[in-house]
Amino acid sequence: MSSSVDAGLRLDFEAIKRIIPQRFPFLMLDRVIELEPGVRTVGLKNLTGNEWFYQGHFPKRAVTPGAMISEAVAQTGIVFFHYSRAGDVERDVTYLLGAIRMRFLEPVWPGDQMRLEVTPVKVMAQAAMLAARVLVDERLVAKGEFSLSAKPNRDL
Amino acid sequence: MENVQSLDDEIRTLVAGILEMDAAELDGDALLVQDLGMDSMMALEIVASIEKRYKVKLPESALPTVKTLNSVIALAKQYVL
After folding, report:
1. ipTM field
2. Which residue among A57, A133, A143, A151 is the active-site one?
3. What does the pLDDT read at residue A66?
4. Could you tell me the domains of chain B?
5. Residue A118 Cα distances to B5, B7, B9, B57, B74, angstroms
6. Domain tally, chain A
7. Which of A15, A43, A117, B48 could serve as A76's disulfide partner, Cβ 3.0–4.6 Å?
């Protein structure tokens, strides 16, 4: 599979790494299967029993931490925001999470595939407020809202 | 007149909620950043919340006008009423 944006609609793992700076053990996005700038981004994260966080969460019963589900949502949001920032904007930036409010409706287990859907609430040049839904097997397992800002690297 | 009063109250509650303050203690002329600790993401949240609640669209230029509760109320009146 080539590592590229496929017809502007999909991103593979290598293309995702060119947009978001997170790496192992913190890269929580495997693929982007829908990418419509300003409208919607859908990402996938496959969870294996080998994920590092299951060692401690929990030793007797592995369940995906809400914090890591939030991280996967935020990384999908970065992809959305990266492609949705309009106009002549600074591109040498670091994306920072401002606030996140998530509701976790069902546990997410090893072996699950999270479908991470991000849509805009308000998108501006330097910041965005986004809505997220997380589904496993078409069941809604988490939902919420979060905000991101794009800080120029020279200001950090 | 009743609508104007209720919009004032609604915006006060909305802003206080985002700042995690008691609405009754929010001084209309206090500077949201300097006096009340608002950050830029909270300002975005205020604008987004007004849009969502009243189903209006505020331009990006509205963001710098989010300086005090009274300026937010004035902004809302410009687009909502």
Report:
1. 0.72
2. A57
3. 98
4. 2-80 (1.10.1200.10)
5. 36, 30, 32, 20, 32
6. 1
7. A43
